[in-house]
Amino acid sequence: MPNIDLSNITSIQPTHLRLLQSIEQAMKNHDFAPLTLINQISNIQNIHNTLSDLCKCGLIAHVGGTADGYQLTFLGFDYLAISVLRNRKIIDLPLRKIGVGKEAEVWICSDFENRKVALKLHKLGLNSFKNARTLRNYSDKNIQWWKMSQLAAVREFGFGKALFQRGMDVVQMLDQCRHCVVMELCSGVQMSRLRGLNVDQARYLGARVYKMMIQMMGFSVIHGDCNEYNVIVEVEGEDFEFEEIECEEGLENYQSDSIANKIAHQHNAQLDSQQFQSDLQNQSTLPIDSYEDIIQSYENTKINIFKSIKLIDFPQLIQLTDDDAEYQFNRDVESFEGFLNRRFKTELSFPRFADIQKCEIINSFQTSEKFARLVKMQILDEEVKNEVEESQNQIAGSKMLLKVRKVDLKTAAKQQMQRVNQKRNQSKRMEKGQNKSNRDRYGGDGEY
Q1: Residue 189: exposed, middle, or buried by beta-carbon count in 10 A (0-12, 13-18, 19+)?
Q2: Which residues of 117-155 are buried (b: 16+ CB within 10 A; e: fewer)?
Q3: Measured CA distances, 383 to 123, 175, 387, 405, 417 (Å)
């Protein structure tokens, strides 16, 4: 995944941003923006010089051949989003890259109060994630790369914010613009990087992650990608400093010896087994009998060394009623369960989807883009429940959203009658025109 070159972002002029926005607007209905349309939208003098500057910086690409036009690059899309976030006083400038994945890259940023936040840039159009159109329920299979990344960011921000408001242990979402999501910076590590846990600690960690999956089922959603790379763990007494990623490898290939050596000696807190069992019993979807052996093994044992355990990555959330819900849930359980069993020899075996007792939905939660946009606009849950249509489990462009139009029967009947009369009059005109043509050709009454 290419690095972001932000060396020119502080010197970019309003004219350049205006031209980038014009190209972005023109690409909503075109694979590339024709020069005449760019000139018409932007209304900039000396547009060729400005286009040349943007091409030299790699913010746009020229499309030659039979047509003359320009395309917005991912770097240009980054400039547009980061410029807006800077104008909103959300972030200043990205400091360094700390994570690279197949879908996105994560940067540490500082805001204007000198606090550290995380900036996630979705890059679903790159070669590393070209199958996004087929692997996920996009209603438009020909959706453009920039729109696909933008919709993924909208879903992540909206779903993450809704889960946080419902008390889930997830990262707090701060703002979103285009394909960028600004969120709190978790001072922890991915679960895949943990070393030195004993069996009890690993079993407790697995139980906590499984409990969060059950909580999400109570909200009628399935995570869809809950594995060791999407769980952030913060250890008591461990200060973690993020290091810049220089290579094109993911965080899963990076190891921290300091954390691996210290985790084995962290026994700072006493687990309250009765409280943990009470929390599990509050989740009516969970067969408690399956946890008795795990919970009893925690009694009188100092194993809770985790300050926080949080889930990340939410664009792929699906509805509990989806056809793939059982497959996705079981795959998530097998993923983090298999990781703990392989690395820490825990021999965990959590209940699968078919073994879980279904219960009434706790809160209305829809895995649709409309729900995510309404959450972003901070609409209350009661209003969301009334406004959001039944989920279709699809990412759709704004022009393709389903619109529920309430029309009374009298108006519907009147409209139907108008359509019938219109077709009848059209048939009469065509028949009359045909007869006139025959009379002109053969004379008489038009028959021959």
Answers
A1: buried
A2: bbbbbbbbbbeebeebbeebbbebeebbbbbbbbbbbbb
A3: 32, 21, 6, 17, 36
The yes or no reply on domain 189-238+288-381 and CATH 1.10.510.10 is yes
Lookup result for tokens 């069992």:
277
Q: Are strands 173-177 and 116-122 parallel, antiparallel or unpaired?
A: unpaired
The answer to whether 289 is a known catalytic residue is no
Fold (CATH) for 77-129+143-185: Phosphorylase Kinase; domain 1 (3.30.200)
Residue closest to 190 by CA, chosen among 250, 230, 247, 249: 230
Strand pairing report for 116-122 and 180-184: antiparallel
pLDDT level of residue 344 (50, 70, 90 thresholds) = very high
Q: Hey, is 78 helix, strand or coil?
A: helix
> Does residue 2 register a pLDDT over 80?
no
Per-residue model confidence as pLDDT tens digits over 170-216: 999 999 999 999 999 988 889 999 988 888 888 888 888 998 998 88
Q: How far is the C-alpha of 62 from the C-alpha of 69, rounded, in Å?
A: 6
First vs last Cα of the chain: how many Å apart? 74
How far is residue 340's CA from residue 390's CA, in Å, rounded to a whole number? 37
Which strands form 306-311's sheet, in the order they lie side by side? 189-190, 231-235, 306-311
Given the residues 200, 225, 322, 332, the one annotated as active site:
225
What's the pTM value of the predicted model, to 2 decimals? 0.69
Candidate CATH numbers 3.40.50.1820, 1.10.10.10, 1.20.1250.20, 3.40.605.10; the one for domain 1-72: 1.10.10.10
Q: Where are the domains of the chain?
A: 1-72, 77-129+143-185, 189-238+288-381
